[in-house]
Amino acid sequence: MRLLIVEDDRDAADYIARAFREVGHVADQAADGEEGLALALERQYDVLVVDRMLPKRDGLSLIGELRGKKIDTPILILSALGQVDDRVKGLRAGGDDYLTKPYSFSELLARVEVLARRRSGRGEETGYRVGDLELDRLSRRVARAGKELDLQPREFRLLEYLMKHAGQVVTRTMLLENVWDYHFDPQTNVIDVHISRLRSKIDKGFSQPLLHTIRGAGYMIRDTK
Length: 225
Known about the structure:
alpha/beta
């Protein structure tokens, strides 16, 4: 899941972004309403987390501008203003949910995941299967041939992206932009390291490999039976 966090409190924004990344999501940050608007118009996000009181352009103005441009990305409003009238005003401005400060990250995460699942009319797929490898997005369970596999959050996100695009070549750039929060290749071996670790967990001990390196192109997960 790719999120945009629009929050002018740098410490709070860094905390939220880091927490989302630790559970395997990608999080961009904007420090004011104008920057948040520009990013929301430029890039595709699954959910926006928007503070209500922002410099340059307040959160409700940002939301109104996006809705006026037919941008239907789900938006969760964060605010210290917690009266009923405040919440109603936020929802009527185009917000999909409203969470008052202070809040727990576990609640924020749960609310964001619900918004992401609601986005399409048919609902986002909750799981993927390639051969005898299964991934459940809701329980975060991965198993091959019935044997449960223990993946770190980033490994889970990497496998999720590969399985979502099963049978397709996934490039390094695609992985950097969608699994990591990089918009360019910084000449790092981070992908190679994580691919190696992931391969050892999903293919080791099985006669049929599922994760393949496509020389000069990228990676692919597929069932070759």
